[in-house]
Design goal:
Layout (H helix, E strand, L loop, with lengths): L1 E10 L2 E7 L16 H13 L16 E7 L5 E7 L6 E2 L8 H8 L4 H14 L23 H25 L7 E7 L2 H9 L1 H8 L1 E6 L7 E6 L2 E6 L6 H28 L6 H27 L2
Parallel strand pairs: 6-7
Antiparallel strand pairs: 1-2, 1-3, 3-4, 4-5, 6-9, 8-9
């Protein structure tokens, strides 16, 4: 078995950090003091053996610790899973579907046979598995974990990641305490966004400390705004921040984004026919993204007067 990627989704000081480990050869994690080398080592250990109930890595995310990985078996089969800090069903697929812990033990057996054998002998009887040793059990296959649904699950998890990142960025910019609950207003978006909002309602409220999530028509109240695809996110400012300071922050951000938009537009104008189409398309996407951000920020600034 090989670990292709280690994800520190919410662990220690890290949020949505991925360490690619799929390339052949030895991988070295290095950096200055306090860069997180020990945290990465602890993450790998707790990914395999479980996140302790008294883990010292809760100082940012509380008890909502999450680690993920993509592992590849000797036969090339790939499994992606997430490890949660909880007693029941701590191992789940990217879409949140519980996975049997016993399957992970079978995946790890070629790598750490003595440890997995000892653990399996305790786990197997509780699952009603009658066999003398894990060595005689079949190696997990992708079909055991509904691999056909992984593409949809990956898209869902990526959407959830973007939502969490956007709302945490707003909290950070406003200086709102992580423990304080705030309302979230949403506007626009696609039918898929609406379906995901319903599906992940409880997860969003828990991860982002939201007191409620409401759809809003027309102009929202003075708010800090974010954008995930076509879905507009608003956190009302009343009672949260100094409005004068927020106006100054928005003016600075509008100037920065406007400069980036102009830079991207100028670059496109200078492209000749010799520039590869892929490069042109990439720059067009960047320009569209900067344009959407600028429109969103400008509208937000106008609401503050």
């Amino acid at each position: 078995m090989r670990i292709d990627r280690l994800d520190l989704i919410a662990f220690g000081p890290f949020t949505d950090l991925s360490l690619p480990l799929g390339a052949p050869g030895v991988h070295i994690v290095f950096g200055p003091n306090e860069a997180g080398k020990s945290t990465a080592l602890h993450a790998l250990e707790q990914l395999l053996y479980g996140i302790g109930l008294r883990s010292p890595h809760t100082f940012v995310h509380g008890n909502d610790l999450r680690l993920g990985a993509v592992v590849r078996g000797a036969d090339g089969e790939v499994l992606e899973f997430v490890r949660l800090k909880k007693r029941k069903d701590p191992l789940v697929a990217p879409d949140g579907t519980p996975l049997p812990e016993e399957a992970l033990l079978r995946l790890l057996h070629p790598l750490i046979p003595f440890v997995t054998e000892e653990l399996w002998r305790h786990v197997a009887p509780r699952l009603g598995i009658e066999a003398p040793t894990i060595s005689l059990q079949s190696y997990p296959q992708a079909c055991d974990f509904d691999a056909a649904g992984f593409a949809t699950a990956v898209a869902d998890v990526d959407w959830l990641r973007q939502m969490v990142s956007a709302l945490r960025r707003i909290r950070s910019e406003l200086g709102v305490s992580p423990s304080r609950k705030v309302p979230l207003l949403v506007q626009g978006g696609s039918e898929a966004d609406a379906a995901r909002m319903r599906r992940f309602d409880s997860q969003l409220k828990f991860l982002l400390r939201l007191e409620r999530i409401d759809a809003v028509e027309g102009d929202p109240p003075p708010s800090a705004a974010g954008l995930v695809g076509g879905l507009k996110l608003f956190v009302p400012l009343e009672g949260l921040v100094d409005l004068d300071a927020e106006r100054a922050r928005l003016d600075k951000e509008i100037a920065r984004v406007s400069a980036e938009k102009e830079k991207s537009s100028a670059k496109l104008a200078k492209f000749s026919e010799k520039v590869p189409e892929a490069v042109v398309d990439q720059e067009r996407r960047r320009l569209a993204d900067w344009t959407a951000q600028l429109e969103n920020l400008t509208a937000q600034r106008a609401r503050l007067g």
